[in-house]
Structures are given as structure tokens and as C-alpha cells.
Design a protein that fits this description.
The protein is α/β, with parallel strands linked by helices and about 325 residues long. The protein has a single domain, classed as Vaccinia Virus protein VP39 (Rossmann fold, 3-Layer(aba) Sandwich). The strands form 3 sheets. Strands 5-4-3-6-9-11-10 form a 7-stranded mixed beta sheet, sandwiched between helices. The protein has a two-stranded antiparallel ribbon with strand order 1-2. Strands 7-8 form a two-stranded parallel sheet. The protein is globular. Bound molecules: S-adenosylmethionine. The site of S-adenosylmethionine (SAM) has 24 residues, from helix 5, strand 4 and helix 8.
Length: about 325
């Protein structure tokens, strides 16, 4: 029987991880990664995704192998998975492509200790990134990661003084803003609700329908939780986007749960924000969602022809 690949649930066509990496070859090449690999009887290596150190070394190795990025994570902080972050960046590339911009300026809301989105955007596409972060150790690590990769000319890490703010503090205090404003903002919001009795709840984001995830959860409570969880966090971005609608062309955020997508769409509709689109990011067994909105007259629909492998080659 011929097996058809399910295109709808595949990674973005330009995602370099769409073809599964050869871990055996990579283990031979990268010593630190080799140390977390397990050797099977057939000579191939396998990975234990339930082990935090394994995830850490895997992401570090992939960032180095595919993008030449040297990244360190603060102890106990979120270890980002690369395939998802790439899918998000590639969607942004598609949204921005029709604008044919010479220089792109973006905002990374909550960059984490890795600063992964900003580093990828800068290294891969030479985008100028403003990375906002509220947690002190993450700010320090993010700045070091930018420096270690000689990307200070493209990435600024801004210490968010008030966790309840998104753009407000920066826009009110910045000494210089890009002349043409920012073209987009992206966000992987704190997901869990800190007001919940047991913020981390069960061991899955959708316990009724899904088995426990293969990957161990990484990250501190401060990084992963906020009052009201991701819905309230993204609602705050929406509210502040109204105040700064001229400063950012396309506002976006990721969402960790499908059921939260209609909640954000309803919120946007209630506030009469009508230029809106959504997408899905597929990476293996994991799906995430994202919402985009704009106050300007521009299309937020991605032209399928633009998602070709030739756009923004790495
Ligand atoms: C889920 S983590 C995402 C980290 C990184 N972007 C990634 O995808 O791996 C959310 C991050 O947002 C930060 N954060 C929370 N509230 C914030 C705020 N109001 N402004 C800036 N950063 C914030 C947290 O400290 C944390 O590092």
C-alpha cells in the first residue's frame, strides 16, 4: 500500500528539521550531544526525551549544526524545542514576504534565557530584534547568548521592569525606536494559570484527549505561569496592541491549546479587530496554534506559493 504523507500535519516546507536528523551521524560529530545518546544493539543511537539534560544537549547541538548558533540555557529554565520555533519564524517570513522589506524589525515578547527566536531571526534572516524579558537570570543569559554569537548589532535584550506590561515600558522609555516602526511581534506566552489550585495540573495540556507528552516539561514556574494563563497574557497583548497600533504592523502570538484559539478570536472580535488570521504549527506529534492581527490594510493570508523552499534560504 502506498503511504501518503499527511501534508496538512507536516512541518513547514522550509523547516530544515522536516527531514529527521541523523542522530547517529550527529553523535559522532558533537561530543556533548554524544554523551546523552544511548547506543542501541544495531549501532544506531536513540534519545531519552524524558531526560532534561538530553533535551538541552539536543537543542544546543541542533542550533549549532543548522544555524551555527552557540546557546546556553540558564539552569532550570525552559529548554526550547527547535522545530516549533522554526515553524513560527517561517510563518512570519511568509506573512512578511509580500511587503518586500529591505530591513525587518521584530519584537520577541518573553525571549527566555535562550533568546531563541531572536537569535534565529537575526542569524537566519538578519532581522533586527527587540527581545523583552522580565526574569533577571533569563535577561542575563539572553544577553550573553546574543554576545556569544556576535549579534549585538541585531538583537537588543530589554529588561521588562513590570511583568504586567507588554510594550508599555519599552515604548515609554526607549531612547530610539526604529524609524519605520516594528513589522511584527511574536510570543510564546506563559501557558499555565498561576491562580489555579495546581497550576501544572495533570501532565498534559489536553488530558481528556491526549496521552502524556513524550518530552519532559522544562522551565521554572516563573517562566511558565502567569495570572490567567496564556489566554489572559494574549488578551493583554491585544489590549496593548490597541494602544500601539501604529508601532507594530503585525501582532502575533502562539497558543498552546486549540480551545484557546476561539477565546482569543472572540476577544479580538469583541474589540472590533477584524483583520485576523490563524495558523497551526505541526512538529511530530505536537501541534501548536498561532493568531495574527493587524490594524493596517494588509493581507494576513499566507500565499501557498510563497511557502516555497526558495524563500529566505538558510
Ligand atoms: C514560555 S516562556 C518562552 C521563552 C522563549 N520565548 C521560548 O519560546 O523558549 C515565557 C517567557 O516570558 C517571560 N515573561 C513573562 N511575562 C513577561 C512580560 N510581561 N514581559 C516580558 N517577558 C515576560 C518569562 O520570564 C519567560 O521567560
Amino acid at each position: 500500500m502506498v503511504k501518503h504523507s499527511n501534508k496538512k500535519s507536516a512541518m513547514h516546507p522550509r523547516n530544515v528539521l522536516r527531514t529527521a536528523p541523523d542522530y547517529t551521524k550527529l553523535a559522532i560529530k558533537h561530543r556533548d550531544f554524544r554523551q546523552v545518546c544511548e547506543l542501541e544493539l544495531n549501532g544506531r543511537v536513540s534519545l531519552n526525551f524524558r531526560n532534561e539534560r538530553t533535551l538541552r544537549e539536543l537543542t544546543k547541538m541542533l542550533l549549532l549544526e543548522y544555524f551555527g548558533l552557540h546557546v546556553e540555557f540558564a539552569p532550570g529554565s525552559l529548554v526550547p524545542t527547535l522545530a516549533l520555533r522554526l515553524n513560527y519564524i517561517l510563518w512570519l517570513e511568509d506573512l512578511l514576504a509580500p511587503l518586500k522589506l529591505d530591513a525587518v524589525h521584530g519584537i520577541d515578547i518573553g525571549c527566555g534565557s535562550s533568546c531563541i527566536y531572536s537569535l534565529l531571526a537575526a542569524k537566519k534572516n538578519q532581522w533586527h530584534m527587540l527581545a523583552l524579558e522580565s526574569k533577571q537570570t533569563n535577561i542575563e543569559y539572553a544577553r550573553e547568548n546574543v554576545k556569544r554569537n556576535n549579534l549585538e548589532h541585531l538583537v537588543e535584550v530589554y529588561a521588562q521592569p513590570d511583568k504586567n506590561n507588554i510594550f508599555k515600558s519599552y515604548f515609554e522609555t526607549a531612547s530610539r525606536l526604529p524609524k519605520e516602526g516594528f513589522h511584527f511581534c511574536l510570543c510564546n506566552p506563559p501557558f499555565f494559570d498561576s491562580n489555579a489550585e495546581n497550576p501544572f495540573g495533570g501532565n498534559t495540556r489536553n488530558p481528556q484527549r491526549r496521552p502524556a507528552p513524550n518530552n519532559v516539561r522544562t522551565g521554572s514556574a516563573e517562566e511558565l505561569t502567569c495570572a490567567g494563563g496564556e489566554v489572559q497574557f494574549v488578551q493583554r497583548i491585544v489590549e496593548e496592541s490597541e494602544l500601539h497600533q501604529e508601532r507594530v504592523l503585525i501582532f502575533t502570538s502562539m497558543l498552546g491549546v486549540k480551545a484557546n484559539v476561539p477565546k482569543i478570536l472572540d476577544y479580538l472580535q469583541k474589540r472590533q479587530i477584524s483583520n485576523v488570521s490563524t495558523t497551526e504549527f505541526h512538529q511530530g506529534h505536537t501541534t501548536r496554534w498561532a493568531v495574527a492581527w493587524s490594524f493596517q490594510q494588509l493581507s494576513l493570508k499566507v500565499d501557498a506559493a510563497l511557502s516555497s523552499p526558495d524563500l529566505y534560504r538558510t
